[in-house]
């Protein structure tokens, strides 16, 4: 049903290939579907595909997600590190492939986005080392949602609970349907949502974070909007899809290297307390950005009222 | 009138005992009423009870509040400090008493929650040492609202001004009636709300904080909701009471030791700038949490679809 | 048209002098208009006045703004630095002039508040040193919006984009009309809004910041209200003007030295991670504040139910 909807929207449209592609993936046993949009636009869609297990972030699911990110990172243009001379920069991008421009994470269920860690799994193997392994895998995923140099968009439809809510709060851009809910109810089973709380408290206002974490009660989409967890609430999945398409269009029409540079510094400065320090570093980033080919082209095109012709490179 | 309302709600219901208990306390001259709920559920209600002085946080009121917290801290289960071996842990809980599970702070007036520091008192004794004593007592209260290992719920009905607003912003969970107002108007009497601003700026969005502090103008309940100061606005005191009861139910059905561990780390990680560091510590907390008896019981009960049987201990 | 509106409101009213004053300024070629309110109330209005260039923050505009702030800083009472003995304090205020109490920044256009940096200018001179100069001038402005010891109010009517949005997010109090929009679209021309993002991410919830910065899409006034960028949305410029007048009234009826002390510490504590440290410093500020003449007068007046008689000094 959901896959059919996806097919009818521009995002995965392209002579029905998108539909069949997902369907065939769907017939596999993978807990995670992964597909490119048909238009060769560099948009990768990851679909949590284990509705019977409420799309739990099991070790398997986390590893599959991280595997996808391993691959996707190689398909991105990465920002040049400051202090590193340009000439020494080795692009990790294989030019023969489409450059990755954006990632969309959603679920293959209209009831559940993800229920978080797999409690059964945590119980079956009671070795603390095994537990640590799971949380390390989870942390690795959350940190790279931030470090991967393309925007990560999350489409929530249904319930996002515990580490599922952490995943949502860790994406760059979050949309949700009206029927969606968000919760961090771990304490109800004796496992406080301490790590989900790290992502949630950095996203929503602090009173919402303490309310959610201490009571475990779910908030609805409107409360998620008020609290800052979500910036767009759509009445249906279809309208969310249309909204997402507009957002993707905004992203892919910009130069990849500039988005990469921008995302990296954005999260860096957010962690800086001192305003003057942040501006000092930010100004240098701006000056460097201005020397990039795509910036010179972008401003030229703007002044000449024409479409820019991006290289998407760090030159 | 208010006390009568309280009596008619489940929270203090129990054959009318709650009503009489508060009434008898009320007939005392104490500026602060303190009562347990009748159901032996470990819920302590503190009621600011000096409406003639607009429930000012006088030195007396602050000391009474801190005295209550001294007692309540002994009735809580405290989280085991990391690095401290479990066997050495001395529980401070006297097992013969009901374990404290939650604190509810409200006022005995539908017009004023609290007007903040007592200006008359600050004026009568002009010794800076005396002033310092008052602010130290106030800080002690604000810090322990955060450190006490049970959730503190604030019910605002009426005006919360200056240090009264600071008290609100320092609680874990804040509800308010529609008629409530919030302000930090100290500069109007020449005393800028510098310490209230510390709590307010950590709770609401920064533009709301600077607006409130620099103009002293009151915001209404809806603005408090938008700004993040309050997460639930109720049309009447009765509906706020019902909402509070649901929240309390959510809290007391969870294991006390897990809430204690969770609240402690929640505020700790909120003060950490570096995301990777926060996750590193958070993962260890999760692994420790998983080894607790109540966590194992909680997950078992969940998987077996039965009610959990908590020990509420740190074992 | 806009100037006519301003004239018809109390803010610039005074026998039409305000109107003519601005008009005559307007006939000058200055990109920035500056006017005092007629009532000698110490309110300075700065009007971005280059609508043909979309009120761009060109080097010229930035320098004009900084020149105004150089002058205005000398018209303020400054807080006494802690650790600095009172007797050594040299007031920078020339007593013969009206003490500055508040600054209002607006634009002379109902379509555009400011479009941010002047792209043409950035392109014409491609010397990185020149670019650095522009960003340094911009940073200097943003930092002093925070450091100048009087409240800075921003009235947005129309689009605030890129560094224009940064200017908005850097003011203490922000009002906007319903038709206003806010964006950080730099990446569309290849120049990521890295420095605007510093101000925006410290003002709005983090998900709004990443959404705005990575997509460049504009948010409307309602979204700006939800996100925390704006605390008051008015249907028309006239109602925004009335709202501003109320806010100004709230400010100028308070003692200047207390506002100065308060604003300085407010931003200082916002940058402090540790709550106990913030309270420790805050308590000392409160004790110092209580020893000020205007505080003693303010509390006296309050207790005696009369109007206070401020000295506006640091005594």
From TrEMBL, chains A, B, C:
PANTHER family: ENOYL-COA HYDRATASE DOMAIN-CONTAINING PROTEIN 3, MITOCHONDRIAL, PTHR43602. It is found in: Mitochondrion. Its main location: mitochondrion. GO terms for molecular function: hydro-lyase activity. Keywords: Fatty acid metabolism, Lipid metabolism, Mitochondrion, Transit peptide. Gene3D superfamilies: 2-enoyl-CoA Hydratase, Chain A, domain 1, Lyase 2-enoyl-coa Hydratase, Chain A, domain 2. SUPFAM superfamilies: ClpP/crotonase (SSF52096). May play a role in fatty acid biosynthesis and insulin sensitivity. GO terms for cellular component: mitochondrion. It holds the Pfam family ECH_1. It comes from Dermatophagoides pteronyssinus. GO terms for biological process: fatty acid metabolic process. The lineage of its organism: Eukaryota, Metazoa, Ecdysozoa, Arthropoda, Chelicerata. InterPro entries: ClpP/crotonase-like_dom_sf, Enoyl-CoA_hydra/iso, Enoyl-CoA_hydra_C, Mitochondrial_ECH-domain. This is Enoyl-CoA hydratase domain-containing protein 3, mitochondrial.
């Amino acid at each position: 049903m959901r896959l059919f909807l996806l097919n009818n929207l521009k995002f995965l449209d392209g002579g029905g290939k998108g539909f069949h592609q997902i369907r065939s993936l769907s017939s596999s046993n993978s807990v995670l579907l992964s597909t490119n949009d048909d238009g060769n636009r560099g948009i990768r869609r990851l679909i949590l595909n284990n509705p019977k297990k409420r799309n739990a972030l099991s070790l398997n699911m986390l590893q599959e997600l991280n595997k996808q990110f391993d691959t996707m990172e190689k398909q991105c243009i990465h920002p040049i590190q400051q202090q590193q001379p340009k000439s020494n920069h080795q692009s990790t991008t294989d030019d023969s492939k489409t450059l990755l421009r954006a990632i969309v994470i959603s679920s293959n269920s209209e009831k559940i986005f993800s229920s978080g860690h797999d409690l059964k799994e945590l119980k079956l193997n009671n070795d603390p080392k095994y537990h640590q392994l799971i949380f390390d895998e989870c942390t690795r995923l959350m940190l790279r949602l931030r470090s991967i140099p393309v925007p990560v968009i999350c489409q929530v439809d249904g319930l996002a609970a515990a580490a599922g809510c952490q995943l949502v709060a860790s994406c760059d851009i979050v949309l949700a349907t009206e029927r969606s809910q968000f919760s961090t109810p771990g304490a109800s089973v004796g496992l406080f949502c301490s790590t989900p709380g790290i992502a949630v408290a950095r996203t929503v206002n602090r009173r919402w974070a303490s309310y959610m974490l201490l009571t475990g009660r779910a908030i609805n989409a409107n409360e998620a909007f008020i609290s800052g967890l979500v910036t767009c609430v759509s009445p249906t999945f279809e309208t969310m899809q249309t909204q997402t398409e507009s957002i993707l269009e905004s992203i892919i029409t910009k130069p990849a290297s500039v988005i990469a540079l921008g995302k990296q510094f954005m999260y860096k400065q957010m962690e800086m307390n001192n305003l003057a320090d942040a501006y000092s570093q930010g100004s240098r980033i701006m000056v460097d950005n201005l020397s990039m080919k795509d910036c010179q082209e972008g401003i030229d095109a703007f002044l000449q009222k024409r479409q820019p012709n991006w290289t998407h490179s760090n030159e």
